[in-house]
Amino acid sequence: MGLEDDMIPDEPEENPDVPKLSKKARKARDKLSVAELKALVKRPETVEWTDTSAQDPRLLVHLKSYRNCVPVPNHWSLKREYLSSKRGMEKPPFELPKFIRDTGIMEMRDSVKEKEEAQTLKSKIRERVQPKMGKLDIDYQKLHDAFFRFQTKPPLTMYGEIYYEGKEYETNLKDRRPGELSEELKEALNIPPGAPPPWLINMQRFGPPPSYPSLKIPGLNAPIPAGAQWGFHPGGYGKPPTDEYNRPLYGDVFGVLQAQAPTQTGEPVEKTLWGELVPEEDGSSSEEEEDDEEEEEGDEEFTEGLTTPSGMDTPSGMVSAVPSEFEPVDGGFELRKRRDGTETEEDTVQKSLYTVLPEQNIRAKGFFGGERAYDISKATRTDLPVLGQEDRKRKKPGDIEVTLDPSELENSDGLSSEAVKAQYEAQQEAQRRESQGFQEDLSDMIAAESRKRQKRDEENAKRKKDKYRF
């Protein structure tokens, strides 16, 4: 028991003079200030006043300093609801982009609306029943130029950019450059053209702004523009900042020094090409030549084995020359497919793209009568129908077609009834012969079909008889 009592650690003796701190007091004692936290991290601009109350402030600021890290929105700690400040504000109406407004569509719509308002009730009802189309016709070239030449992208948010209350009322400083004054600012400060800004006098007295050490300011560390004068009169550039020996304090304010090449600071930049391809060695070409020589020697040995001592070639069946199908003809190859044995008589006949019809002079008849006619019978393609002469109606049984030559109608006073009757009888006889020949050709097929039908009827009758036997 004595050994066990010796191994029990003694309780730390409390100093009665030092008061015992609570957990909240100890946390407030060990808490870093914003200035101390900014001095400990690499990027102090990311430190906020709430970061000091984190469990590990340095780790938090280190994570916030990472590239492409999206910050937490500013309204996370607000007591009121999100966007509650815009509750009573009027939402602006939608506005068309400028490249669409330039087409003149808004003026056309306004004019159409004015006409509609001036209409009576009866015309409005008629317009609703029978609307008129094409009221807003815009030139196609204007539309093409608007959407393919003058179209601009709408304002988009960048990566990690989050909207917060009042963001649209802030001034966008991304397009602003230090030292460049806009026309609105010059007009607000009442600066005449060519005059310096009013804070140039204080810059000459106290020095350039320390946040922009390389900024060139005329009258301070750069020469004044042409036509300007030194002095304190309206539009003057004050007094150049010099020392007791009349030497410029902040830069070449008189423009007498020569421009020097910028000196490089830091390690020199290595400009050697690191991704250049290594040139091929000549050994590969020599190896290819050796392979070609070996192949040629092998071919010679192979051909020597195919010859007899008498000098006559053996029928080995192998051809060393290029096949006749791929032999060049007149210095070129025939790339088209060969159609040996597949050509018909129609393919062998040379086809023409068009046919010249002979022209005839005729006597004009009627109000729209022509003076020229063409002989259509000379056309080579008789299988194609002529426009307007194809039979669009279904033929009835017994109809007979009779072809008349228009030249006969023009040369004579007209065909006689006997000539038309003779052509009709000749065409009717030809049609009758054709139908008879067609019936004679189908006689065998008709007889075979009748025999099949008779046999099928006999089988059906026998099947019915067997069915009702019992």
Automatic annotation (TrEMBL):
UniProt region (Disordered), positions on chain: 1-28, 262-349, 373-470
The segment(s) forming the PSP proline-rich domain are: 173-226
Recorded GO cellular component terms are: nucleus
| Regions of compositional bias (Basic and acidic residues) in chain numbering | 333-342, 449-461
**Entry superkingdom:** Eukaryota
Q: Which InterPro entries match?
A: DUF382, PSP_pro-rich, U2_snRNP_Complex_Component
- For bias kind Low complexity, which ranges apply? 418-429
Compositional bias of kind Acidic residues: 1-16, 278-303
PANTHER family (alphabetical): SPLICING FACTOR 3B, SPLICING FACTOR 3B SUBUNIT 2
Q: What is this protein called?
A: DUF382-domain-containing protein
Origin organism of this chain? Morchella conica CCBAS932
Give the source lineage, highest ranks first. Eukaryota, Fungi, Dikarya, Ascomycota, Pezizomycotina
